[in-house]
Design a protein that fits this description.
Helix content: under 10%
Number of helices: 1
Structural class: mainly beta
Number of strands: 6
Strand content: over 45%
Oligomer: single chain
Largest sheet: 6 strands, antiparallel
Shape: globular
Radius of gyration: 12 Å
């Protein structure tokens, strides 16, 4: 595991590879495969991102930062890293 992954994983992580909605509190998404979202909720955005986000392929190896609380994949796989102090 690379040092950056160890640093982010110290507060916990969630592996997501199915199409069911997953809820939690994460600040980094690491894509393990080319991934499409059905929807993605960022607490810093008033409404869940859907529709146009479904047309974006996030490539394997990419990292995305935000304040994510709900993730629903259409396809692919990712690791969602928890923020310090979330404890869930």
């Amino acid at each position: 595991m690379a040092q950056i992954e160890k640093d982010y994983a110290q507060y916990g992580k969630t592996w997501i590879d199915g199409t069911a909605a997953t809820t939690g509190k994460w600040f980094v998404l690491q894509f393990l495969a080319d991934t499409l979202f059905a929807s993605l909720t960022d607490a810093g955005v008033e409404t869940p991102m859907s529709g146009s986000i479904a047309s974006i392929t996030f490539k394997q190896g990419a990292w995305v930062f935000g304040d994510f609380t709900r993730i629903t994949l259409a396809s692919g796989a990712l690791i969602a890293y928890k923020r310090k102090g979330d404890g869930s």
